[in-house]
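Example record

One chain of 1412 residues, shown exactly as stored in the release files.
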Amino acid sequence: MPLPLQQHERQQRAAEQVLDRRLRPVYEMVDSRNLKGALKLVNSLLQKAGGDQAQTKLVKALVLYRMGREGEAVEVCGEVREEGREGRLTERTLMDLMDLLARMGRAHEAAEAFEAAAAKQPDNVELQELLVGAALKSRSYVKMQQAAMRLHKKQPKNDKYLLWAVCSMDLQAFEKENHAACHLPSSVASFHLPASAAATSAPGAATSSPVPVSAAEVAKQRRQLLQLAEAMIQRKAQSEGGLKSAEALRLYVDLMRRQGKGEEVLRVLQGPMAKLFTIKSDLLQIRGEVQQDLAQFTDAAATFRELLAVSDDDWVASLSYLDSLMLAHLQSSLSTPLSEAVAAVTADAATAAATAATAATTGAKPIAAESHASSGSEGGSGGGSAEAGRESATRESRLVQGLLLRMLAGGGYGGEGGGDGGLGGKGEEEGGAAGGGGGSEGGMEGGEWESVCAGGAAASALDVACRAPESKRVQDELFRILSEADRYFQGLRDRLLAQQHSPHQHLSGSGQPAMKRVDQSSERDGEERAQPASASSGEAGAAQGESKSTEGEAASAGVLVKASATSKGPRVARGPFLMRLEVLLRRLHLLQWFGCGPGEVLSAAADLESALLAYFDRHGDMISFASDVQAYALALPHDVRDRLGTELRSKVAGLEPLGGKGGIRTGESGEEPAEDGGKGGRREGEAAREMRKRLRRIISVEQVDGVMGNWRSLDDHALISRAQRCVRLFLEASPLSAALDPREKGHADELLPVAASCLVEVYRRHQPEGVGYLIEAVLVLNYGVSLRPFSPLFNTMLVSIYGLLGCPSLALSSFQRLRAKHIQMDTLTHLVLPYLHQSASLADVSSLHTDMRSFFNDHVWRDNADVTMEALRHGTYSKIREFAAFHHRLQHSHQRLLLSPNSLLLSLPLALLPPSTLPPAITQSGSAAPNQAPVSEPVAKVREVLAAAGGGREEVRRVVEEQLSLVRVNEDWSVRAWWDPLPLPFSSLLGACGKGQLPPDSWINLESPEKQQSRDSLLLKHAQSRGLLPRLLFLSLSSPSHLLPSQGKKAEVGAGAGEVGGGGEEGEAVEGEWEAVLQQSCRLNGVGDDEMERMAEEGAVDAATQDLPALLARLPCLLFTASLALHHLQSPVTATTGSSSSTTTTTTNAAASAKRAVGLVQAVSAVLAATLQLLQRECMLPGSSAEASQKHLPPLLVSGKLLLCALGSFVGESAFWSALIISHWHAAAQSHPPAGKKTKKAGPDVAQQGLPEEVVRAVKAARELARVGLQSLRKALSGQISGKGQLPDSDMACALIGLLPGVNCSVAGDDKMAIPGRVVGELCKLVKEKAEGAAAGQQGTSSTQKEDNRLKENGGHRDSDAANGDGDGSLDGVLVEWSATSAAERLLWSHRRFIQQLVALLDCQIGILGST
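Predicted structure tokens for this chain:
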């Protein structure tokens, strides 16, 4: 038998080689993007007999998918699947089929083929493993468990497959946790489709929708899954072989922790299996966390102290140790009130569980509303005394932690989202709750934890008991505990100090090096990537406090500074020194909590100030200094902040200039020959290292000053002087970065953003007249980009300013220089996408949408499953749930939610005006290109595009309450500019164009839980509003005549279109959905029912809503409401054969409906006219900027009103929708017969209603007003980019620079005069001096030049090319080719391109409305 098997393998390999040779040309064509040729070739291969036809068909499907013909690709894959059901596919074909279908979100279809193949070959282990991977990719965790168990039965001695099955059950439990774990913020209105509309919201919905399950039932299923998984791994652990890896033990421990079985976990960790943990700190960390969950705070403190003996720089362990000390005291001091609170919470949970069970039985309560009671059903309804005891211990632990959180939440501390660890800092994926305690293992979930921590009845009772006069001992004991902790950490600091003086490394008490955990890469020159040990450690709050005299600490810091200056080894750790600040801050918050006198509070603040100064002496030259101390600095009162800022500035007053009076010479900027002659080759120059330390200290002071907001109190002249100083320092320090690659961060890169921020602040004070400061900020940042093109510090600021100035192409270029990829397509695209959406940059935003869609599809449906399978194969089981949580975050990402409606809305103008025609569509005179052919019947074309996408139904389904509650906001807000805390339209710089404006808090933002909730509510409302738009637009563009029931047969509008019915139950269901969606859209845009009816009655808008944001919000609402009113007038009605009274009633109702429709159409005209008039008055009239008109500059750019985003939003969306809908109204008015006339097609019992004459007149008037208004707007815009006397680009750039009089110092006059251009003038002067000095140095024969040449000959770091300027034109780190004029030219070019795109869109809209 072996011989035939070998022959079969040889034959199979030979067949695969032949197939590869046949298909290789096809793959090469696909790689070269010759898709048509590849399709032709693969079709010819399929016509030939022989070979693996299934594999060839898959290649054809791949080509079709790449061509965008996904439907045809699915059909071809279906043919391959049919062969797979018969088990005739090879493993290679199966894997390729899964990969392709996963790209299209159809992995479950490929899993069927794997099942059939595995059933044919049950002994093929490799194929069975592939089946596990296929089930994982299709998210069929039950099938994954079954396949893993079959493998385990075949190989019972192999633990791997058993653990795979356990992991699959854990994944099933994870899905159950997310069923009811997420809740909408209270400020986001709930939204449900009507039952009739929901039933018809998607084809087959009634048969494919799962039966709703109550949250209590889901919690029960989750508990059963965890119990079964634990039993399986426990049986293995207790067997003869036992568990064999630390990962398996960690999985076992995690399963028990998720059930709240802390006592069992401790027994396991104290048994023989604990030896599997090879790193002692991991074992101690888990043990301490479990002891905290069990309310064994005294034992937890001892455990974390033992952990600190092993790793004294473990910041999480330090915080947990301090937490445990304080929690242990609160637990013992408040034992009676705490017992009463636990009993009250337990009773409330039992009541909630009973209520949820009753509601689930009667169906009277939505699933989402039951989630708050789901946790109580686990512990409150039984489960034995052991389970009840675990629940009681968990509730006691969380109650005490909640009390400490509230104590230490003074000054906004406790929810700042900084660092890890601390109270509630275990990660929200575990518990799924939105609150800080969501990470509780097996404890309370969601609403119960929030009620305990945020001020429920039990929490309030504890607060009262703690603050009672007889509880004065609680306060005194807490202060004593803080003093003891401070003494302990002082001992760690003293030991670290002693190591600096000892020639040998000291060992800690455990016999291990105390400096073992120091991040040496973060301790070099302060430009390291240090772990941010920010004071906002523990997102739900490890807090701060305790005071003691700080003279000794300051003295120790001074000694350490001297020691570190002479030491050549690694510097000391930061953790013990930061804990000094932590203890003092906790004391300050406790004094505020207990209501102590202002004298004590100020004294504690002064102690914290002194400790901050001492920490600056020790760690001020580290790049992480500002992030380390930001929360501590913000906790100080404002007068103490001012004093701290003054003290810090005095400490760095003598550090400038960096290189002394002679400045920094080229030879000092880099490396010197090694003195020891060893193998090292080179070592860093001592002088350069010292200058970098001085520079870092100056930058740290600037950053902390920005954190505290002291710069806001400066006048305009002081801000400009500060910006000039930062520019001078940046130019002086530029030689230090000369040897760095342009992609690396420069040593002084933080200084230019500080200068730009000062200029933006001056603009905010004087907008719109101070637009010169905003342009000046652009020029300053552009200089930084010329040196460091990929610096995020420069580019993130430029994205915001370019977007606000109406230069979307430059904003996109700045974003592209960030090199965003992978997960950053979700976390960073919020920087630029809103500006592109509101700028009419159709091609740019379409390209970015394609990249985002590719990332989401690849990772959600393919990549995540692949890495999870790799983790299973390598036995890293603790990562499985982490990957599942990451998949869940991406699958329900806020950006992914917005991507679908935004892409669909973007496709509408692209269907009428392809992006390739946008730039050349405008000639030099501003008119449309003669060869541009308008699309015939544009309304029908747009309706066809919407119908092909399902009529917007899927977008609506995603934003109903049950789906919106799962959305995760993954955006990284910390990278945004301080003046732009949220994406459009929430920017603080937009002035009258912003809505929900959020003023900036500081340059380095910290967010409280309240601010996070407010932010998320705004974003969810905006996402829901965007999700409703495609459906409303489709309904508004569809008339009853498109889908009239005729002889029991429904007409259709395109593939997958929804029915916009004109009669029968179907029409009533769609109309009910229309009304529900429209009502929710109006509510989200702030338009109430009363206001809508008032506008319909008056045919106008209130004077109070005549501002641009209000008008832009009301226009779509009025358009869709008027469309619904006209739809009712056009809908076919059953012919009336009744009495005359019923006929009279029908006539009266029709007259009222016609009157309302006329009023709504007139209101649309009024809003449209008011918007156009406001835009032209604000930023279009030539007289709006006399100086700009004289210099032929675009008034839109230099007016300073920043209305460009609003203008782009109006032209790209609101005006486009208005043109389409009004044109549709007009077509209906022209084509319909007079009211009441029957048509032959409608049948004997159905009459198609025409529009009344008054409605027809109103529609015609609205069309004419829109056409004339858009033509006027187009004329005003085209005048911005063309006209008589138009200057060349270079002259216009000089004119733009001329708006900055400070550039020419002779014009400035008084040096104390605040005028735009001083900073750019300083920059240009210094750049010129640098260039001239370098040129003179190259030609001269000074002693300095000779010394430099000698260094080069002896192996110095700078070669001749670097000295004479490299290929980028840099000279000593200064780009001599940069000029303000060239940057201004790019600004004007991008702005002109933006205007051209607006004009092209207006041409399209005017064409839609037609000519008179």
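Notes: The mean pLDDT is 74.
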